[in-house]
Amino acid sequence: MTQIPISTSAMIVLDRSGETESKPILYAFALEELLCRAIGQGTPPILHIWRHPRSFVMGLRDSRLPEAAAARTWLTEMGYETAVRNSGGAAVPLDLGVVNISLLMPKEAGDMEHRKDFDSMVALIREVMGSLTDQIEQGEVLGSFCPGEFDLSVKGRKFCGIAQRRQQRAISVQAFIIVEGTGEEKASLARNFYERAAGEASSTDYPIVAPGSMASLSECLEIPLTSELFIANLLEAMAAKGGQVKKREEIPGYPEEQQIQEMMELLKNRYAIKV
Predict the structure, then answer these.
(1) Active site residues
(2) What is the pTM of this model?
(3) CB neighbour class for 34 (10 Å; exposed up to 12, middle 13-18, buried from 19)
(4) What pLDDT sits at residue 3?
């Protein structure tokens, strides 16, 4: 079994996967931005687990497509909350069948080697899934949404994408894991978004999302896997490594609610889609 190449003995586990109704989609990204600042000042590393009931998160390049504003309006009319995230990668649809996990870790000033951080997330996911499958492959899945070198797939169908957000002294490695539901439904939503957002843009400026490229873990493994079971496996794997689940008031440097709200507003304004 591949071992997680990071020390988890002092890692804090922040499980917000049950907070699915009350928080806007930007809340998780604002919280991680502030937690990374705290980690840069000495707070222990944190594994953040969260979900959102119905949203569509765009990457920076997506937000700059010629008709991105019109595509966002279409998504809003469809009942999706939208946001532009400040990490790498492209658009990702989210619902309660998608588990988002972020490794928030300290970074030496000047450290530009990002592969080891991606490797940490890949190893963690493989370890969590070790009792169910050893068939997880790493490598870009052509035709998938949010494609990248660190895509994770089973038999050619992608279920996980990974992105990074790097600060001067901390880093957030973010993964979306489609655990349950229908991968093609999410792929279709992303494909329709790009068809509306692309306008006159070159096809090299956005992913061409192909049918059959995406699947949930439940579909890939042909088992009734749920988000709750995946999270339970994740928590068990972290506990075995010495990670400790803590409430927010037990986490040093955890931001006040007002700080999170202010960061949400800053992110919203800084990465707003130009109309």
Answers:
(1) 146
(2) 0.94
(3) middle
(4) 43
